[in-house]
Structure formats: structure tokens, C-alpha cells
What we know:
Strand order of the largest sheet: 1-2-3
Radius of gyration: 18 Å
Organism: Citrus x changshan-huyou
Protein name: Protein kinase domain-containing protein
Order of helices and strands: EEEHEHHHEEEEH
CATH topology of the largest domain: Transferase(Phosphotransferase), domain 1
Keywords: Leucine-rich repeat, Membrane, Repeat, Transmembrane, Transmembrane helix
Strand content: 15-25%
Oligomer: single chain
Amino acid sequence: xxxxxxxxxxxxxxxxxxxxxxxxxxxxxxxxxxxxxxxxxxxxxxxxxxxxxxxxxxxxxxxxxxxxxxxxxxxxxxxxxxxxxxxxxxxxxxxxxxxxxxxxxxxxxxxxxxxxxxxxxxxxxxxxxxxxxxxxx
Length: 137
């Protein structure tokens, strides 16, 4: 298990012959609020990346423009997501590839963190940094 949430957990799995690592979310539908969470997860698949949103063509400019309040809300959404990954997942998780392509905006311009292909537990990061420090001495 990667982390435990209010209505389920996220497990690590492997997909296909090349054993590509994937995260699989299991929702306990008996848990209060699980159905609402499931619908919210499905809505996330309708999101567009911040990168796509910010590179709209001129005829779609009103969609690509984010006012100051929307920008502040976007940054706040991301801060809460990172805080959750670092302090409420067991083990804690570092995303390691938080780019505009991995920030998803829904139709209400609420930011969601996506693409966990480059995530890893913080404990593994600390071990790597200690090993690197010893090697560089």
C-alpha cells in the first residue's frame, strides 16, 4: 500500500508485460462519502493540464486567462495537495515531477495533482541522498 485515505487506499501495481508501475486506487464504497469521492475522481479525468490551459488559441483566450483570485486558489490547491502527500500518506510521498503538465484544472479551475509516474516515498529519497553524500564525501 502506498497511502491510506478517508475512503480507501492507493496500492502500487504493475501493468502489462513490461511491468510498468501504476498506482491503483481502491475505494471502500461502504465508507461514508465514498460515492461522492468516486464521482470526484471520475471528474478528474475530464480535467485539462495547466500547460494546455495556459496555451489556448486566441479564439479561446477567455478559457486560458486566469485572474488573480484563480491563480491564488490554484497555488493554494497545489500547496494542500503537496502537504497531503508529504504529511498524510504513509509512507510520505514526493511527487518528483510537478510541472504544468501534471497540474490538472477542472471546469471550476480547481487544481489537482496528476501523473504519479515519478513519485517515490520520502524514506527512499533520504536513503538515496545519504548514499550520494557518502559517495561525494
